[in-house]
Design brief:
Four copies of one chain form a homotetramer. With about 325 residues, chain A is of the alpha+beta class. Chain A has three domains: about 5-140 and about 220-275, Gyrase A, domain 2; about 165-215; about 280-315, no CATH class. Helices cover about 45% and strands about 15% of the residues of chain A. Chain A is built from 13 helices and nine strands. In chain A, the strands form two sheets. In chain A, strands 2-3-4-8-5 form a five-stranded antiparallel β-sheet. In chain A, strands 6-7 form a two-stranded antiparallel ribbon. In chain A, strand 2 and strand 3 form a beta hairpin. In chain A, helix 4 packs across helix 5. Chain A is flat, with a radius of gyration of 24 Å. Strand 1 of chain B pairs antiparallel with strand 1 of chain D, so a sheet runs across the interface.
Chain lengths: ~325, ~325, ~325, ~325
């Protein structure tokens, strides 16, 4: 999933060495372990142009979810239902607390505008790189050409066609130039170059907590982020959704791949019930019932708005 | 909804007087007000045999939700969609934060075993009557005959037939007698009668925080409970559900009635999209699509378990 | 800390076997491990007469806290301060987020009235034994004679002298008899004995979710409880405090012992700064300053109430 | 606190009109009202150069806190302690739940780098202006000369001397120029001017959600933010602290002024116990005791680090 080649560019030599060391230092534990996740532990998985996610630690597995659920059911548990059946049952009936019994910790490098969306998920723990304390790295997100989309005409919160030719070139030039210039002035204000050297020995540098305000929102930051599995699935359901902005979706997709290694049974149930699932309103269900009964209801008498009707028909595969 | 007659039995004379006073003391405010909710402000709404809910305070209304949503949309808002349309849109697309902008505070009297389920909803604020500090009232929940259900044979977490005749009488006698005896011994251990008088001047009374452990789980307690509207709707969706225990459902139903007064547009959207709505898994949606296309899929090749299939057919009105 | 002898009485044979199996099944991991905590992993630590706590899983250690903090400080970290120094600094300056990066999961058996206090700590995950689904065990908390305290005369929320002789005997008899009778009637209502056998083949049993309401608050329940280290320290600071009820303090004390094994550096900093620490108000600090300067301030002109003054003098070791 | 003159510059004419209308539309309510807060309801209180806070709604007052606390104490309350005494007691003993019973909602306009610190307070509700959906305003925070501080030499996370002359002028020029240029290019990428007009009819505009990444961190955003009083006091205690960055402290100070109008008794207790208060570790308390007893302890045998010792001596007014 991640190659030395690609990860090489993401990290400094010192970080590479630290990861190698962490990966080599094995110990014995009585806790449950997940070999497929251990395999990629600490390794950066590239996301966007300079970002990554790395699994730093984890607690629990599919069996731990089942074990927690069986505590609730006590002596009453019929052991006939297997683990996969029970996990499916829990997912289907929104019995969310057993999923909270697993926890995972990521190291994430991400553009600040993505971090601003991500942090809205409040039930998580986070330690972010402090730009009050330290100087930010000279790294900015510049979209790949295939993600340089025009504003959608129909959806104010979405993307339309991909920009081409001069339109695309102009945007990329502006993004690159402004980022470079803002960072250069950041250094000038700090009176300190990126390598730590002083620019003008006779001048005072602006406080880091102030100078950073000159940096654009595509500057990369990083954090440790820890979350329980239930809330992580909720994060993925919202952020791996087609309505989410592509840049955060790229992270959610990478997390989903990680989940397949960690809790494969849960991830499959989640994919079926949530990601591939659909919520119908009472009115929409009424239409579905009539269709199933062979009737041909019309939007006008369905109680659905035009937009709801269209979405329902699309979900039912009846477009066009 | 609540009558003097019924509320009279729920409250002491002092409490009645306090409520009267609160209701008479009107003031002017620049905040938004909801006349239909003001009408029942402070009034106890009876639930179960000795319980109630009372709205003590509230913040916001349907218009406040719309206003908060429009802050997000900024200049981009097409004002063409009316308030009801916007609220429907928010509910349908799980844009939950505007609903968090409303808040309500209840005074609730409820049996301890109900309180134990209720408190599991963590995103709320609560101040409970302290049985370390004060003596609990002599009030116990005794189910009405029509709620005295046998254990369900098919659902380990549910109720079956209503008990009748001797079976019912025996249960009611046991519940009443044990509650009365436990409370009497609670007083003996405290060496203090319910009216505050000492039982035996020569003896020492057990600490309240210890004596209370003799009381059964149907003893009534009370608390102030404050919650934002988004989390309150989540509470109602889980606790007014047929799978919830009847006793907490009775409270959730009373809250739902209150919501109709407070935020009628939101409550209607919630009823349609959540209470009357249904979640289909990807596999179930596949079956629905085939049915709508006129095919006749079988459970065996549907990817659904027998139970999921039955639930789907029931949802589609195809039982039997 | 726990002996086979004492744990033997806490668990069924099946549970003993399961713990033995879990403890023997070691695996290799790249995650950090804490040998001192591994040593007691899964083992029940007895609390009260029938309760226990068991560590089921954990994530992180003292080094993980330091590592998370260093992410925040980035390149700006002076590595001169050692780990203990940094942890002390974080604790002293309320930089709480690095402590949130550690997580621990307990299996706890506890009386219901203790569970009711415990659950008030909302930032945690919990899976409780369901008395809707299963039949509760016949186990009740009966205080040891040395904890059978009278109501405090001075503190409405506290305990006074220990009851002696007949007073004590009478209380113990009442608690034991009422618990036994309530449980017996619980079985009668369920129409099912503790061992699962039916009492009266011709009669219907009351639903479990209803029958349980006859049980007293000293009945034992159990749950899996998971919490991050920051919130766990907050729990301990409130519940291992002399103002907390003895019964929950017994659990908080057992947790504190566990913390010494898991995160010894953090636990020492916590003990110094929080458990042994004191918060002085601005007015109290004014008095302290005058005392240190050799003045002899009086309560009357201190701005402190009599009670605050007394507490301050006690904290300064100037009582009497 | 806010003048028409100063608020005039903060808002558009349409917003001014909306506020006027809101302020004039009074209604009657049975809820508690706070005249001193009603006086400034909806009015913007200026913060920094283009920011503000406005109180939009509130629930509860000092009396509501007392009422909630009395629910906990039930019949056991000695009514002898007045409201102020009870609130002081709650504050001193960290009985935080009654303060959670009050709620307040603000409309805040603030620079993005301040918003990034602010959002770390998770127990609150927020609706932010969406730069995916709408075009951000052309407004940037440029520090006033007296806040243009150099990096502190002693504290990596703090400010030192104020920049003067050329150093200051250079920084202000860079900040102003970069903000202006980035915003201009934001418009170019959007292919849309700030007034909504299209720049080049033949070209496609970049999606808003992408174009915004070119804007610097001192760009202003705005949100509705709702919080209970307990968590708001925690926010103020951390953000009105001298260790907080000046720019967020300016907002915390404005909130503190608002609190004096809303809950004056609570604010006074909070100021005394928390803002003016001090936390001493066990080791520090040992030193204080020895000083009070007339001894002259030395840092070397105090168990305190040099820095802790210095902080203690400063708190005791024994510097130099």
């Amino acid at each position: 999933m991640t190659t030395r080649a690609s990860s090489h560019r993401l990290l400094t030599e010192a970080q590479e060495a630290e990861i190698r060391e962490s990966r080599e230092a094995e110990s014995r534990t009585r806790r449950c372990s997940v070999p497929a996740l251990e395999e990629i532990l600490y390794e950066p998985i590239p996301v966007l142009d300079h970002g990554f996610i790395r699994v730093i630690d984890y607690m629990g597995d599919d069996a731990a979810i089942v074990q927690s659920a069986r505590v609730s059911y006590g002596k009453g548990t019929k052991q006939t239902r297997g683990d996969a059946g029970l996990i499916n049952y829990l997912m289907r009936h929104r019995h969310t607390t057993p999923f909270e019994m697993c926890e995972i910790k990521f190291h994430v490098k991400l553009p600040i505008f993505v971090a601003r969306q991500w942090i809205r998920h409040r039930t998580a723990n986070v330690n972010e790189y402090s730009a009050r304390y330290s100087v930010l790295d000279k790294e900015f997100y510049i979209p790949a050409p295939e993600h340089l989309a025009a504003q959608s005409a129909s959806n104010r919160q979405g993307r339309g066609e991909i920009l081409r030719g001069d339109d695309a070139a102009r945007v990329l030039d502006l993004l690159r130039d402004d980022a470079a210039r803002c960072y250069e002035h950041y250094e000038v204000m700090l009176n300190e170059r990126h390598d730590g050297s002083v620019i003008d020995e006779g001048a005072a540098g602006l406080a880091r907590e102030l100078a950073r305000m000159n940096l654009p929102l595509n500057t990369y930051t990083q954090w440790y982020w820890k979350c329980d599995l239930h809330n992580l699935l909720h994060f993925v359901s919202l952020r791996a959704d087609p309505h989410a902005q592509y840049e955060i979706r790229a992270y959610a997709d990478a997390i989903l791949e990680t989940l397949k290694r960690w809790v494969p049974v849960t991830t499959e149930a989640f994919t079926n019930h949530v990601m591939d699932g659909v919520q119908f309103s009472g009115a929409a269900l009424g239409v579905v019932r009539r269709l199933v009964a062979g009737e041909t209801p019309a939007q006008s008498d369905s109680g659905l708005s035009k937009r709801e009707w269209d979405e329902l028909m699309a979900a039912l595969g009846r477009t066009g």
